[in-house]
Amino acid sequence: MKQKNIIVTLLAIFVFQFANAQQPRQGRYYIRLANGQSLEAESNTYKNDGCQVQIWKQRFTLNQIWDIADAGDGKFYIKNVGANKNLDAHAGAVNNNGCKVQLWQVLPANINQKWIFQSAGSNRYTVRCAASATNKVLDVTNGAIGTGGAAVQLWDGAATANQVWTLEASYDKSVIAPNLVDLRGNSTPYRNQTLPSGERGGCTYFGSLSALEAAYKKRGFGELDLSEEFMAITSKMFGLHPYWSDITDAKARENQFAGTQGGGSVALLAQGMRIPKESAVGYGLYAVSDNWYFLDQLYTNNNNFTVWNRFPQIGTATYYGVTGYEEIKPITAESLEKALSLGYEIKICIDNGSHCIMLAGFDKTNPSDKKFIIKDNYGPVGDACNSKLDYYSYSNIGRFISAEYITDVRRPGTWKEINVVGRWDLTYAGWKGVLDFYRLPGLMQFVLNGDEARSRNGGTITDRRLGTFYDHTGNMHRVNGKVINTGTAVEIEFYIDGAKPNLRWDELSGRVFRYRLSADGNSMSGSHTDLDGRMFTGSAVRINPNPPAPAGERTVTITPASITTELCPSILAGGDREFGGGPSINVQVLLEKTVDEKGIDAVIYYTAAETTGDMSTAIGTFRKRVYTAPPNIRVTGVDAAYFESKVVNFRGRGAGSEFGACNEGQVETPPVSSGSSVSQIIVVGDTGGNDISSGGDCRCDTKIKSIRFIPIRIKVANR
């Protein structure tokens, strides 16, 4: 008998220890069904006592996160993090099937706010209300486990699929208190954009990527450090100027210079842009271009590929991105507080887009001094931007022009389509040319969908632009198409129309090419169909914009041909078309090798700006061939000493009388920067006519009359 009692006692101890071993540890969790649906407090009323508790797909918001804390005697409190309220069974009905489960203010002594986790297997539990004497457990009403918004109630425990819950650890580090939400613990500290060499102007990238890093961190991916550099470069290359009427021909620049200010947003990430880690594309590795005003597409491509292709890791890196986001409209204190209270970091742009920050919470503990907690990327070089607490007063809400937050993210992975971007040597049906694929179609659709863009474009234009093509004669053609990742290969379909060089962004006409990218991303091949239906095979090989010096490269001296054709700008950047006196004139002349390496082009940028009145301003970009190499010789570069020539802030003279017959104005020879390739630039500033051309013959317009060069050194090699 004594031995039997000992066995019974040991068995009881074992059962007690086993049961306790199955109890959860205290901590922060998502409480989920086997199908992934999460227990949550209804998002519109979760701050209220009596809020409905329900299931919804997992979205990693604070109303889905629960703090489980020991309540003693094997019982636990389950507190909703976002609401700071306890899971509660309706008092007086805890022994009834259908008893309402709700949120209520924390009442530690109330047994209907205490819960017992009953093991149903490894990390599987039925959750019993401690106040119930009849084993009433959390139950999805009517077994509707696939229906978002299905209410949770108490019901007889049966360990069915609508009653068995798993615990998934939450990595959320939010601090929630009455009138306080602080989300800074969820995002990776980032360095200030201010470098020893000067300001980077990339606040929009920092704000967007800080929010993206936080979204991944809350999903268990740890401390990510994503590459602001990559977004700064690529969002400019991939951009589209949103107004088609400004893209006057195939030579006109339609995107921007990689590395200039402004750009990327949460909306761009949601459109399909993806970002690698900082380790793939490091911070501050390129110089910001000061040639952002050039309106020449080829010069822009040359600049961008030189910068962008410095990162060989791009093709094989792991990428991160956004699959869902929301814009807050209208932007009010209440709408911002709601998003922050749900755990969403908000990317904010202020003052007509001149600066962007990230909201990481709010503090209303002092009603007379309500303020947002922010992360801002300005400050001392190298400092972490959330190394101290920064605030932004509620009184500044009127300065907010946009507010975006991330609702869902991509599964990390490769981005094979990115390998299509680059410069390609194309051979097709016996012909040769160069493809510049400087973007992926579709990524700027959100810009073309904007109200102003649709109004000025006469409706929505579909973004199908891939880049430009230079035929064997050097003529430029826009290229449209699509890029498809089939899972086993990347396929490119693109169109080149010889009869219509300046294809609009959405047009698909001319020859159609269907190519497949090689596994290493350095070649592609396939076929194209001519307008008469005949098919031909072809291929393309990637061109490295920074190749090692070729064998036999040598330096020779040549004199570029003078430019004697008058160049008059027709773009009106401000004011009317009349100067009231001599304008301020700026000229920049850049020499660069041609894409086919058969010669040298001069790219000329000209501005003439009125210094009084309505500040009328003319701008223009021009490209002229100034040297053609002999047969069998290719140009590999221009000596850096001769690359750039400038006229800076030259004040032209007035033309005199503005009445009567056209007065061609004063012909002048402004000083050119020392050490340049240009010996003389002849200009006309103010004239007696309508100074800024509207597309005429340059008569009585501000203009460059001629440019003459000195002998320069270039590098050449045999073909």
Describe the protein in words.
The chain has 719 residues and is mainly β. It has four domains: 20-169, Trefoil (Trefoil (Acidic Fibroblast Growth Factor, subunit A)); 187-409, Alpha-Beta Complex (Cathepsin B, Chain A); 416-543, Lipocalin; 554-718, no CATH class. It is elongated and about 100 Å long. Mean pLDDT is 88; it is low at 1-21, 192-199 and 378-388.
Descriptive terms for the model:
single chain, about 725 residues, Trefoil (Acidic Fibroblast Growth Factor, subunit A), Cathepsin B, Chain A, Lipocalin, 4 domains, nine-stranded antiparallel sheet, eight-stranded antiparallel sheet, about 10% helix, disordered N terminus
In short:
Helices cover 12% and strands 36% of the residues.
Give me the secondary-structure topology.
Layout: H1 2-21, E1 27-32, E2 38-41, E3 53-56, E4 66-72, E5 75-80, E6 85-89, E7 99-104, E8 115-119, E9 125-129, E10 136-140, E11 152-156, E12 166-169, E13 175-177, E14 180-182, E15 194-195, E16 198-199, H2 203-217, H3 228-237, H4 266-271, E17 274-276, H5 297-308, E18 319-327, H6 333-341, E19 346-350, E20 355-363, E21 371-375, E22 390-393, E23 400-409, E24 422-428, E25 431-437, H7 445-448, H8 451-457, E26 465-470, E27 476-485, E28 490-496, E29 511-517, E30 523-529, E31 535-543, E32 554-558, E33 571-574, E34 584-593, E35 599-609, E36 617-628, E37 633-638, E38 644-651, E39 667-668, E40 678-684, E41 703-709, E42 712-718
Helix pairs in contact: 3-5
